[in-house]
Amino acid sequence: MVEKASKIQTKEDALDKTACETDVEIKNTDGLHMRPAMQFVDIASRFKSEVTVSNGENSVNGKSIMQMSMLAATYGTKLRIKTEGADAQQAIDALKELVEEKKFGEPAPNNQKKHTLG
Amino acid sequence: MEIKKGVAVSPGICIAKSLIIDSEDYRIPRRLVEPPQRMIETQRARNAFRTAIEELTRSQAEQKTIEQRSIKDIFAVHLRFLHDRSLRKKITDLIYAESVTAEYAVSTTLRDIAAHFTKVKDAYISERAADIYDIERRLLRQLLGSKRQDIENLTEQVVIVARELSPTQTAGFNKEFVKGIATDAGGRTSHTAIVARSLGIPAVVALEDLTEIVHRADTVVIDGNRGIVIVNPDDETIRQYETYLTEFIELGHKLDTIREKPAVTRDGVKITLLGNIEFPDEAESILEKGGEGIGLYRTEFLYLNRETEPTEEDHYQAYAATVSVFKHRPVIIRTVDLGADKYTQSKRFAPEPNPFLGLRSIRFCLRNLMMFKTQLHAILRASVLGEVKIMFPLITNLQELMQAKMILRDVMEDLDEESIGYNKNIHIGIMIETPSAALTASTLARDVSFFSIGTNDLTQYTLAVDRGNELVSTLYSSTDPAVLRLIRTVIQDAHKAQIDLSVCGEMASEPDSIMLLLGMGVRALSLASPMIPEIKQIIRSVTIEDCNNVARKILTMNSERHISSFLRNAARKILPEAF
């Protein structure tokens, strides 16, 4: 078993794979419901790299809508995204942007506050 | 071996392998398959995913406008789920690990996911469980739909086991291969019972949890005489039933010999025996069994066994086929009696909360005039081929009758303009199947040439009992004193107005009730073909005087239980071997 695992490791090294990792926070009010999960999966699927998302308890495949939606990440949840593969860096940048900058194109509590104050 | 007791609704005995029909409307029971079958189940699951994806892609493409964007989003999410390999793997792994059917694996896996969502505290996310249930139903529809096709293309004899059967499901039943029916729900007058009797195959209903006990291709005995179903009988039981089956067939042959003899009482009173049919190909069997015409031609089949609404020509072909079998003998075509079923409900955005008191039958027709006129046009066109009569169902007041007759006149004018021939003096009648129609029968009688008492609905509406609900079905009895008083009123009013009267409900084929009906003045009965010989035998064994005495006695009785035991005893004295 151990031998096999290390072999896979060597193979991956040979293919010049990189691994990236980042923490993100869900910032849109409604959380990671179906439509945001779909956006996440769609973007993750554009890359060759493997995408893993973890909420501390469970680690799931970031390209599976079933697994992503079952994370049931609500507003304020912190997730750790790991990407591994030739385009790992691009993948993680795109996903971080979707979650934290674009906020899935949905309203966030902060935005609403600013709006009311203004 | 497991023996289950239910309610016998159609006589006969059969022994065959089971074919289970699940429904996406009910929980799918956990059902095991033999290990070699697992590969087939896996393939069925994969096919269901593939066709569901195709179906959804098509519906998605059809949503074009901006308002439909949110629907489009929902479809997009569902498509991602259907394309999700890990979901598919979870399902196929379950089929292999536990040797279960594709239906069960799909249903359990998706319901587990849905349950996971429901547990999340966030309201917005927990509501997403609804999406998962949608996906589950979509996949089950594919799996069960392909199974329905299997039923239409059967090559070996089976007994059908189901929770409950809808007209859509039974429309494809092939008499040659479907040898018996057993269902968890239902009562004596449920759709299952009516179909089984018209096909002449044994059926037992109200078996409660049969679908949980039976597995695919188990051997099942259906004893429609005693209301017993035996799952995986031992050799001894099979032998017993084979003997019993031979005896039963012999009794059938004995009754067949009276086919040519008239339905006349011992004191010389002629009773007209007509047949109830659901499909045109049953017409022949009415004649074979000695029926003298059609007292109730149900026309719902035209709507229920196809995707689109039937054309005028579809109607005409079906009626012409039946009328040509009977030539100068009467054929009473009942206009479409849809309602409280998938056909009328699926067209509505929200299902009616109380469909049996809702937009059904003639009410549905009067609201869908194009559909109604199409049928009337075809009936009128067929009226030149023989002795066709029109009957309107579920009339509750005079206005409805007048409206229906006015529309019929409109259609007649259309035919005149098109120079198409029809019988201008066609007889128009109504079903008396609501308490309001029974109580106003004297008024309604002035505008029709015949009444036909539909005892099933009349009983259901008078006693406020859902005949398909096994929790209250014991309260359902057409010999309840309240129902009998209404029936008596209708018979008297029909006689006073000198119009024809027949009874076409299940009561007309219940051996116990025949003497009572004749004693109350009924002279025409309409019933399913397999029961005609037995009922004729009873008629030939009684005198009207005996019947009058029975009826007089019954009408003084106040308890349904006393009435039914009195009737049973009276009938046994007359014809012991039939009971």
Describe this structure in words.
The complex is a heterodimer of chains A (118) and B (579). Chain A starts with a helix and ends with a helix. In chain A, strand 2 (50-54) and strand 3 form a beta hairpin. In chain A, 46% of the residues lie in helices and 20% in strands. Chain A has a single domain, classed as Histidine-containing Protein, Chain: A (2-Layer Sandwich). Mean pLDDT of chain A is 81; it is low at 1-10 and 112-118. By secondary structure, chain A is α+β, with helices and mostly antiparallel strands. Chain B folds into 2 domains: 2-228, Glucose Oxidase, domain 1 (3-Layer(bba) Sandwich), CATH 3.50.30.10; 260-428 and 512-578, TIM Barrel, CATH 3.20.20. In chain B, 50% of the residues lie in helices and 14% in strands. In chain B, strands 1-8-7-3-4-5-6-2 form an 8-stranded mixed sheet. Chain B has an 8-stranded parallel sheet with strand order 15-14-13-12-11-10-9-16. In chain B, strand 9, helix 11 and strand 10 form a beta-alpha-beta unit. The radius of gyration of chain B is 26 Å and the shape is globular. The A-B interface holds A 30-35, 37-38, 41-42, 61, 64-67, 69-70, 72, 74-75 and B 73-74, 76-77, 80-81, 84-87, 90, 113, 116-117, 120-122, 124-125, 128, 131.
